[in-house]
Amino acid sequence: MDLPPLRLPRLGLRKVMMNKRLYVEGVGKRFGSFSAIEGLDFSVDPGRVVGLVGPNGCGKTTTLRCVVGLLEPNAGRIEIDGEPVASRRAKAGLAYVPDYPAGLAELTVREFLALVRTLYKAPASFDARARALLNAFSLESRHNTMLVALSLGMRRIVSFVAALALLPPLLVADEATAALDPEAVVVVREALLAVASNGTGVLLATQDLHFAERTCDEVILLSAGRTIAAGSIEELFARYGAASLEQVFLTALGKGAGIDLEQVFGAH
Amino acid sequence: MLIRAILVCSWRRLRPFFAANPLVAAVALLAAPGLPVLAFVAGERVAPSLSTALLEQGGVIEALVVAIVINGALAGAIVVAVAPGADVFGPQVSVAPIRRMRFLWAGAGLPLALAALATSCLLALVALPVAARLPAGRVLVLELVLAALCASAFGALVAESAPAAARARPVAVLALCLIAALWIVGASLGGSRVLGSFAVVSSSLVASPGAILVRSAALAGMTLAASLAWLYLAASRAPARYRAEPRITWLRIPRSLFWAGAAVAIKRLSRRTELRRQIVAITLLCILAGPALLAFVPAIPSLAVFGVVSCTAIVGVVLFALAAAGVDEEGRWLWAVAPSGSRSRPAGNAFGAVMLALFTFLAAIAPSYVLARPSPSLLVEITGFACFVLGVAVISGALVPWRSDRIVEQIASYTACVVLVGVLWYLVGKVAAPIAASGAPEPAIFAALGLATIAASVGAHAALAGGEHS
Q: What ipTM score was computed for the predicted complex, to two decimals?
């Protein structure tokens, strides 16, 4: 049974002034002799939510790190409205939520948000949006708490708050629902859909197929660093004759049969 | 197996770093065999004047022993207080059915013991030419080096047991009582309340080789006992706990990138549990040790006390500058994706770290300065020298980042700092000598050197860190 939609407070959302399109063409990344991703092609249009799904180690995080400029691809090009992602103009239109928000743990929530505001030269409306989002995530009482004293889920929420409050033309979120409680997952989903409806393009990676099914306009299924299926949810359902993204996932990967547990653990 | 794991991991982390920084690798390769030579040459240079002073001027040997004891203890306390504990192998391996002492020995103890051995060899090479000119002869080197090692082990044990004793751990209280007892016994034997167990060292100049060997054996025994006690306590060290809300929040994050970087550096360095303890320990040690020496050991000239306290404070605060780049590196993902200038923020980070270190240094030496009353020009010279060391520490920390959870990187970072300070100080001496000979006042030279080093270090840090993330 689906949960009723959670009403977000007023976030001070406005239409994103400059809609930007992420364009990824023929991107590959190697670590020594290991090819993490190869020949990836996709784009994220303004207002669209695109999800990367796939088994562990299939290259989702590597792809996102290339997109945000943390890794430099060995092949292909990644551009935001014609600008290479390493350029400052491209970075100015992009906010990132990492899979594990390490570092800067000695700053309080308020100080971390102030630092992000400074680094992105965000306008004063950033503070109001950040406050509203902290309220929505029930973290308003923790604004003077150091990040190191927060749980992993709370630290990820703070990362989301910082990225969402920037109201960027492009938002990239790795492991979008990892470590979040069910209520936070609902708030994240609503917030992502809200910013997308205002023109933000969203690229996320997740293992939560139910979340992806309910949030994404388009899904890219990766395996061993390559795209094995891509399209809207409806297109994928029709192509694989599936009723859920989980069925699409297992059918496309040919992993429906499961494993022989008796062979692994022996007969009881 | 554990030692091999640490060595393999360290090598695999350092190999790509050296491959990416061939200049650093070349300097390290050249410096490794050059250090013993440099140490011996330095000893030869100071030997004539130091041996004469030791034989002819009263109080110089006491000042030397005080310097060895305080700085040895401080170095031991700093290194083990910030070194990773038995959980260095991560939570999954740490719960394996192996004694925690073995984890600690493999993860921190052995690397630290090897580093202490290397440092002792260098100290011995510096002391050898001096000892050869003294009545006791070269065997005196053994006692001096063991005194430094013993002081380091005592410092390590005090740094480990004091926080544990504050949490009412009986074994930690016992360790502190044992140290106090050894100190009192040593003080009564050597006749100095302040020098305690090390008082006998100050009478070694005219001692027979046999007596020196007996004392050295006693120092070696105390070193071993203190080291084992430290290993035992550190193996059961409680993980660092952070206050949920910091005490000081008045320093806001400014809108300017440079000042935001400086504010973030000050907040982060001062809030890390291991570094905050460091700030408190250095300040307290210097504030208490300086006046105590001035009050209870009148044989030591007040200027020498001020010099010892200043050296101690510099050794203590240098970690803040050294750790700046390593701590900053932990926020790499945010710095890398943000559209802000890639130079001004790391420049601010380096500046903030130096300012925190400099402020702690000045606070630590203030009581000794007031009591010893040296000339203002000496204060300017020492502060200029402190700025030089801190600036060089920022650069070496950017070249070989200090990492809180990795002992090999910590030792590499300390070594890089010592080598750079030594080499650059030698070069500065070559440049400054003709300037001083031309009549320029020395305080002005030191002040200019300090300011120039800080400016250069901030610029170098910005270039190194900014270039890496751009």
A: 0.76
